[in-house]
């Protein structure tokens, strides 16, 4: 083995480290966003900004994150409540973040909503709300944070945008009495948006990828899990015999934020144990 190869191999020890990185997590007060924020802090981030619509929820999440014993000394989670569907709130969010950092390395665009109702009565108001939050707000969150994401990004150390989509945007989502056409369409759109932004922002040294979670027990998913037969039935349906756990989402987000994924751009990674491959969700 040559000396050059030995040097390259010796540098793999910190391939998943996020030491000193600055992250923003939208929809970060609970569920997948909170799990991801926990992973980012424990992987070495110095600052993780948590934002969601409710101030109390953000403050509670930040308090729990800052109590983690395994985060690096001096690292902190910071609460910045904002409604991602409102442009004025997004402007305020960026301004507040800019008061305590001159750059952002990682954006986990995770805010989202769903609605279930049969085709014949599915309300226009809710269809629009889901599409606005799950697609339009993701685009404008990324657009407005782009200057901070670009500030310190380089070819060798690019910034990262991770978009939360869903396996419902890959396969067919829920139909019938609790159909989710707006959710499924919005998540398919989020996947394609991530691919477009990968090409648009890549030359600015900002990599954009999407994740497509399956069922993770959470407040938003609990109702649909019960409608589909409950935890046990869904676990048995999944090829790996279980649903998602907090470390599954945290590990994937840490990977996509780290040096280990620096040649992934425009990728879509399903994290569902293979359930989507069986033809229904």
UniProtKB/TrEMBL annotation:
<keyword id="KW-0521">NADP</keyword>
<dbReference type="InterPro" id="IPR002347">
    <property type="entry name" value="SDR_fam"/>
</dbReference>
<dbReference type="InterPro" id="IPR052178">
    <property type="entry name" value="Sec_Metab_Biosynth_SDR"/>
</dbReference>
<keyword id="KW-0560">Oxidoreductase</keyword>
<protein>
    <recommendedName>
        <fullName>Ketoreductase (KR) domain-containing protein</fullName>
    </recommendedName>
</protein>
<comment type="similarity">
    <text>Belongs to the short-chain dehydrogenases/reductases (SDR) family.</text>
</comment>
<dbReference type="InterPro" id="IPR036291">
    <property type="entry name" value="NAD(P)-bd_dom_sf"/>
</dbReference>
<dbReference type="Pfam" id="PF13561">
    <property type="entry name" value="adh_short_C2"/>
</dbReference>
<dbReference type="GO" id="GO:0016491">
    <property type="term" value="F:oxidoreductase activity"/>
</dbReference>
<dbReference type="InterPro" id="IPR020904">
    <property type="entry name" value="Sc_DH/Rdtase_CS"/>
</dbReference>
């Amino acid at each position: 083995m040559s000396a050059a190869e030995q040097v390259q191999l010796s540098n793999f020890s910190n391939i998943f480290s996020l030491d000193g990185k600055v992250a923003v997590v939208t929809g970060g007060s609970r569920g997948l966003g909170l799990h991801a924020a926990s992973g980012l802090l424990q992987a070495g981030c110095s600052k993780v900004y948590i934002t969601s619509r409710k101030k109390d929820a953000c403050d509670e999440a930040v308090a729990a994150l800052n109590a983690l014993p395994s985060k690096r000394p001096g690292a902190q989670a910071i609460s910045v409540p904002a409604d991602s569907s409102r442009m004025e709130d997004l402007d305020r969010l960026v301004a507040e973040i800019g008061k305590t950092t001159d750059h952002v390395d990682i954006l986990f665009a995770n805010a989202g909503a769903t609605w279930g109702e049969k085709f014949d009565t599915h309300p226009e108001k809710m269809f629009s709300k889901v599409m606005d939050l799950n697609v339009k707000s993701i685009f404008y969150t990324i657009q407005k944070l782009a200057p901070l994401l670009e500030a310190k990004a380089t070819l060798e150390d690019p910034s990262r945008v991770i978009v939360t989509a869903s396996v419902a945007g890959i396969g067919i989502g829920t139909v019938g009495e609790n159909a989710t056409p707006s959710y499924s369409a919005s998540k398919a759109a989020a996947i394609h948006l991530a691919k477009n932004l990968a090409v648009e922002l890549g030359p600015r040294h900002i990599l954009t990828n999407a994740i497509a979670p399956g069922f993770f027990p959470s407040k938003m998913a609990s109702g649909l899990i019960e409608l589909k037969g409950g935890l046990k039935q869904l676990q048995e349906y999944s090829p790996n015999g279980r649903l998602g756990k907090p470390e599954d989402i945290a590990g994937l987000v840490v990977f996509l934020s780290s040096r280990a994924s620096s040649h992934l751009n425009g990728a879509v990674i399903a994290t569902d144990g293979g359930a989507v491959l069986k033809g229904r969700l």
